[in-house]
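STRUCTURE:
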């Protein structure tokens, strides 16, 4: 079980939605699955029992949204799930290009978002270590 679970918007409908998922995958690759894992937003929203149980056993939850609509954060809030940390790509000054811009992002943007997300995961891990 990873220590930190990521909920990414991962809406492939726009560049920033795609970036959330690509960055989450990059962070898992960098830090390893024992440290961080991607949680299934659709499964939790659909009340899949196994996924809901898994969420309860992860130490820290991080939500990453692609734009100011904050869809992932808001949808999880409706399920009573609030993140320990949050990243919105608008805070990184990344511009959402709109519908059907799914592949309009660069590797530099993936790196920027992954670096920010990895930093947040690191802070979450530090907080967990301080509690023990």
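SEQUENCE:
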């Amino acid at each position: 079980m990873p220590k930190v679970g990521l909920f990414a918007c991962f809406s492939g409908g726009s560049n920033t939605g795609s970036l959330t998922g690509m960055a989450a995958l990059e962070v898992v690759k960098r830090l390893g699955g024992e440290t961080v894992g991607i949680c299934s937003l659709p499964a939790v929203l659909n009340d899949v029992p196994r996924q809901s149980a898994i969420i309860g056993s992860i130490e820290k939850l991080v939500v990453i949204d692609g734009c100011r609509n904050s869809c992932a954060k808001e949808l999880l809030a409706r399920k009573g799930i609030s993140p320990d940390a949050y990243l919105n790509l608008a805070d990184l000054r990344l511009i959402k290009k709109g519908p059907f811009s799914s592949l309009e992002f660069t590797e530099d943007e993936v790196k920027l978002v992954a670096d920010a997300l990895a930093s947040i995961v690191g802070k979450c891990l530090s907080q967990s270590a301080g509690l023990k």
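REMARK: The CA atoms of residues 11 and 25 lie 14 Å apart.
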